[in-house]
Amino acid sequence: MLLNGYVHHGENLPKSLNFFRSIVIQEFAHRFNSNDAFIKFAKAIVNRSCGQLQEFSYEGWNTTTHLSYVADQPNMLKRLQLENSSFHDANALVRIVKQFKFPLLVELELRNIKVSKEDIIKIGSSCQQLKNFWLIKRRELRRRFSERTDDDEASTIAESMPQLCRLTLQENHMTNDGLQAILDGCPQLEYLDLLHCYRINLETKFITQCLEGIKDARLLNDPIFLNDRILSPLNFVFL
């Protein structure tokens, strides 16, 4: 469990910390006597935020339980990161954002969570201040060789989140049409990460023209970094 740089595996919370603005909870339930004990400890952490919580990150099996509890407390949440080991859908998240529980949300990162077209529409309409969106699916080798194409997700993001400045879509089946929809629908986009989106045709002229206004783009395969900067002409990475 990571709390503002402190690491806890079930021990008492430090009394010297009055409240937490940033909370990162990783699944360490096996270190507790029971799942209920783990949930109780996690809730105690949220309570210590005292309405000042701005960042919340959770990785584990009880995503719905913890997210619902955070939403029910006073918060100033601007960044939300969720990773679900059980690969559940986004129904709980959608229900919460529809109730305007996170009106200040600027960054949303979803990993290994199944998100439908309808979910994206509801998130986009409820989180008007959202600027950065990550949708990272479970990486599977067969995706790379799959012939299936699907531009619905990309088109829906373009229509529902036109204010985005940063977008990460990994393991997506979009084609060049989906990429074009994103670039047309999100004119403020500066950063675009499409790693492992193997249905995109990386013909150099098309990529250069389409990504002319993008400051940083990561395409298909893992990039090479040097001092946290991408090594590639025009800051593009395509292999």
UniProtKB/TrEMBL annotation:
Gene3D superfamilies: Ribonuclease Inhibitor. InterPro entries: LRR_dom_sf (IPR032675), LRR_FXL15/At3g58940/PEG3-like (IPR055411). It holds the Pfam family LRR_At5g56370. Residues 154-198 form the F-box/LRR-repeat protein 15/At3g58940/PEG3-like LRR domain. It comes from the Eukaryota. This is F-box/LRR-repeat protein 15/At3g58940/PEG3-like LRR domain-containing protein. It comes from Coptis chinensis.
